């Protein structure tokens, strides 16, 4: 019997979620990712003494004077 397959391009949050739900429903789900680790926009790395956190934390501003904070209040 041939197993159904979904080829997932990108190992970010959406790609990983797609792969998980595909496997839960009986699909073989290989993930093609160009980076050396999965995670996409939810990863962090160090370069020298600097730490780069590229997660979505910037969507939740901590300063009340931020324009993003003001736009969230208007919604």
Tell me what the structure shows.
The protein is an alpha+beta fold and 75 residues long. The protein contains two helices and four strands; from the N terminus they run βαβββα. It has one domain. The protein has a two-stranded parallel sheet with strand order 1-2. Strand 1, helix 1 and strand 2 form a beta-alpha-beta unit. The mean pLDDT is 76. The protein is 27% helix and 16% strand. It starts with 7 loop residues before the first strand and ends with a helix.
Sequence-ordered SSE layout with sheet pairings:
Elements: E1 8-9, H1 13-24, E2 31-32, E3 44-47, E4 50-53, H2 67-74
Parallel strand pairs: 1-2
Antiparallel strand pairs: 3-4
The helix/strand series, from N terminus to C terminus, equals: EHEEEH
Strand content: 15-25%
Q: Number of domains in the coordinates? A: 1
Q: Termini distance?
A: 52 Å
Instruction: Write down the overall geometry.
Output: elongated
Record field, number of beta strands = 4
Given helix and strand content, the structural type is alpha+beta
Largest sheet: 2 strands, parallel
The stretches of 5 or more residues where confidence is low (pLDDT under 50) are none
What value does the average pLDDT take? 76
Radius of gyration: 18 Å
Number of helices: 2
Q: Kindly report the spatial arrangement of strands forming the biggest sheet.
A: 1-2
Helix content: 25-40%
